[in-house]
Amino acid sequence: xxxxxxxxxxxxxxxxxxxxxxxxxxxxxxxxxxxxxxxxxxxxxxxxxxxxxxxxxxxxxxxxxxxxxxxxxxxxxxxxxxxxxxxxxxxxxxxxxxxxxxxxxxxxxxxxxxxxxxxxxxxxxxxxxxxxxxxxxxxxxxxxxxxxxxxxxxxxxxxxxxxxxxxxxxxxxxxxxxxxxxxxxxxxxxxxxxxxxxxx
Length: 200
Prior knowledge:
Shape: globular
CATH architecture of the largest domain: Sandwich
CATH superfamily of the largest domain: hypothetical protein (bacova_03559)
Structural class: alpha+beta
Oligomer: single chain
Radius of gyration: 25 Å
Strand content: 25-35%
CATH class of the largest domain: Mainly Beta
Mean pLDDT: 83
């Protein structure tokens, strides 16, 4: 009886590993090289809340590895890191997209009090590139929301969160994923000020 059970166990195990081998073999080949997913352009910063909203906090956290900005003391510019990326695993052709300030969205957020202590950052205090171009073979590119850091020392911004809404428009090469086409940049002025040497 023991011999019969042992033979049965060996047979079952052999069959199991044989089936696993067949499964693995069926996964080999060029499947990993196949195109998949949908190709859309979007702003990765619009996804940082996990889909709850398009808010992008600056600074993004309390540790040194969570800085999402650069400060140039010579030019007195605060450069906030933003970007555009293409989704999907598809042939990486070149593309471009215009970068715009969605002042209507920013005004609405401020008027409705959707961000505590929120204040609109006027257009004259920041700069954005007109267009971002991505070369063939690449999927993404970074760009900056560049702010006049001197303005952030003004009393009007003390204890406030300055708001700018940045969006994508007029794509060439791929369509825009509208759900993540805009990012609401929220600058915690009090948290930023210590990094701006010479402003205090």
